[in-house]
């Protein structure tokens, strides 16, 4: 079971105009199929191995290495534990304004369309990652300095071969995910979602079907993706996570989670919180 020192329980740090960051920790190998990456993100592996497969490619990222992932794609990820019996990584996502500013200033850089492995990165790159992460977590740091440090990390990514670009031509499915993402635990009916786009329910269903999906599939996947993130990167009890993603009981949530990922929520945390409802899946 994962144990955290007092006062160091994990959380997802968000800072307006800068970005978001969090750690990931697992104690058993897990595979995540068709994991949707909504926004560009950089993942640094600290212990263990991350295997990533995307449309047209695959790679393994070891401790001390990183991978930059473009937004708007679904990938397969396997996190394998290291010699100490644990997998640890940290991710960082930038504010869209910072990504746009970097793209405008470095238009000639190759756009990262899917993934950019960063192998053999110098110590300065790792330091820049930590400084950017710290700048997001510490809101006492002046916002100008925090944005500068996050922007510096984008420069490091550029030096390793690419830049991010915000998706422009979004599919309706992605747009629906973003609407649902504003209140993942809310009661989302076809009527409510269709109204958000000023179209009829029939048109909503038809257009999503043309893209090979449905509102119910998008709703469940959006909820389970957030639930996975909360399980990996926070210490919130499963009962609280279940409510946050729209389920009234841990057992109902656990069934949906297992259906989506092939294992129960307990697997993500290594049975760390049996008393809060994880063990009833």
Task: Walk me through the topology.
Layout: E1 13-15, E2 19-26, E3 30-37, E4 41-47, E5 49-54, E6 57-62, E7 66-69, E8 73-80, E9 87-94, H1 96-105, E10 115-118, H2 123-137, H3 143-159, H4 172-181, H5 190-196, H6 201-210, H7 215-233, H8 238-244, H9 250-261, H10 265-269
Antiparallel strand pairs: 1-2, 2-9, 3-8, 4-7, 4-9, 5-6, 5-8, 7-10
What does this 3D model show about the protein?
The chain has 281 residues and is of the alpha+beta class. It folds into two domains: 13-159, Jelly Rolls (Sandwich), CATH 2.60.120; 172-280, Homeodomain-like (Arc Repressor Mutant, subunit A, Orthogonal Bundle), CATH 1.10.10.60. It is built from ten helices and ten strands. The strands form two sheets. The protein has a six-stranded antiparallel β-sheet with strand order 1-2-9-4-7-10. It starts with 12 loop residues before the first strand and ends in a 12-residue tail after the last helix. This is Helix-turn-helix domain-containing protein. InterPro entries: Homeodomain-like_sf, HTH_AraC, HTH_AraC-typ_CS. It holds the Pfam family HTH_18. Keywords: DNA-binding, Transcription, Transcription regulation.
